[in-house]
Design goal:
It contains 2 helices and 9 strands; from the N terminus they run H-E-E-E-E-H-E-E-E-E-E. With about 200 residues, the protein is of the alpha+beta class. The longest helix has 20 residues. Pfam families: YceI.
């Protein structure tokens, strides 16, 4: 009887532990999520949006453990230029081989591999960003909130475009650009909302 009691206790502990570490997948709600890009040059800046094609986050023990996001590069738009012809000219250039080579590489991917709690709701994420088929590591901070079955993450990723063979207008590779020089770093501001089925406590 004692042996049976011990076995029952061990099984109960295993069951409790399994519930605590059980991972839950959260799927990104594309209608509620946004990715905003911003690129700067000597004479000003341009900005717009890119749609998410898909996204999932794995959560366990009240922490994001991993995730994968795919950005639809064909959806790039510019929102700061009001002239339709000038706007389309810029977007066409961004989609060309001078920049993102969208016809050849219609999807860019971010794979999250490591997450650390920084302070309060802020977490530090590390992973791999693939643009134009080229992959490099990225690290960034994001504010994360998990409320019932909804997860929201807000943050900004700084990207050195030259690492992804985007050299157009870069002072690293071309001399005497003057006012035509474009900064090598652009940013991706994201506000991601995802939903899943979870009985875990809220992330405070």
């Amino acid at each position: 009887m004692k042996t049976i009691g011990k076995l029952t206790g061990i099984i109960a502990l295993i069951a409790i532990f399994s519930v605590q570490v059980l991972a839950t997948n959260y799927n990104v709600d594309k209608s509620k999520s946004t990715v905003k890009w911003n690129g700067k040059k000597v004479t000003g800046e341009h900005y717009g949006t890119i749609n998410l094609k898909s996204g999932t986050l794995e959560v366990a023990d009240k922490m994001i453990k991993s995730g994968t996001f795919k950005m639809d590069m064909t959806s790039i738009v510019c929102v700061d230029i009001t002239s339709e012809s000038t706007n389309q000219k810029l977007v066409g250039h961004l989609k060309s081989d001078d920049f993102f080579s969208v016809e050849k590489h219609p999807v860019s991917t971010l794979v999250l591999k490591k997450v650390k709690s920084k302070s309060g709701k802020v977490h530090t994420f590390s992973g791999d960003l693939t643009i134009k088929g080229i992959t490099h590591p990225v690290t960034f901070d994001a504010e994360v909130a998990l409320q019932d079955e909804t997860l929201q993450a807000k943050g900004k990723i700084e990207v050195d475009r030259t690492l992804y063979d985007i050299r157009y207008g870069s002072g690293k590779f071309f001399d005497s650009l003057g006012d035509n020089m474009i900064h090598d770093t652009f940013t991706l501001d994201f506000d991601v909302v995802a939903s899943g089925s979870s009985g875990m406590a809220n992330i405070k």
